[in-house]
Amino acid sequence: MPLVTTGELVTRAAAAHSAVPSFNIITLEHVEAVVAGAEAAEAPVVLQVSENAVKFRYGRLLPLARAALAVAERAVVEVALHLDHVQSDDLLRQAADAGFSSVMYDAARLPYERNLAATRAAADWAHAQGLWIEAELGQVGGKAGQPALDAHAPGARTDPDQARAFVADSGVDALAVAVGSTHAMTTRTAALDHTLLKRLSAALDVPLVLHGSSGVPDDELVAAVAGGISKVNVGTALNIAMTGAIRDFLAAHPEAVDSRKYLGVGREAMVQAVTGIIRTLN
Length: 282
Fold this sequence. Notes:
It contains 11 helices and 8 strands.
């Protein structure tokens, strides 16, 4: 099936009050597992490559991007490619030529005015290339002289009034909001601020994105989508599934040396995780 754009999937989901599942990929096994899981759930999906994943691949974007493109083009469900958590302007400018339809530009670590200026410049460039762009805003400005919190630091929250101004002034197409989730959680214990999420949804006219969803329980994810989230990012949950399955396999088969054996087990565990998450969102 031909590739679709992230913007198309997210816009459609927002109109239907649903959410697009977006999974971070690191290896070819991740790519194959995400697409297979989406096919099993009969749902569209976004494949995301983060800047950290590019660093892991010796700083080269194209090998993983081309693998993702090859798998996506043969999928029987709609698949989009998204470049995630980009802080490097050099990497940002590789997105269009590498086959991505969208990018998440991450300047949320910066004080508000610098975040806004950097994001505005990134949005202008992305739109000139036909790319859909997502940004992120957490608690900014700090208190009592303290530095701003990163959007996923414990206690970080997105202010609706500031978010409205940020979206208007930056020109982004979607906003990732801080409502209680945290990246890299290995337990599903995050409690989201649903009252704040409803305020953000009412204040903004662009789709909202939830990062750090691996640590969010199923009922909280369902409530988040009902509250206005239109794109749900998942990464760590796949690594937990893959690593756990491989660890168990090698413990049971200490003589194993054929990497296809344990990678296959790890890939299948990720397929099951993807399918389960998508069915929860649907």
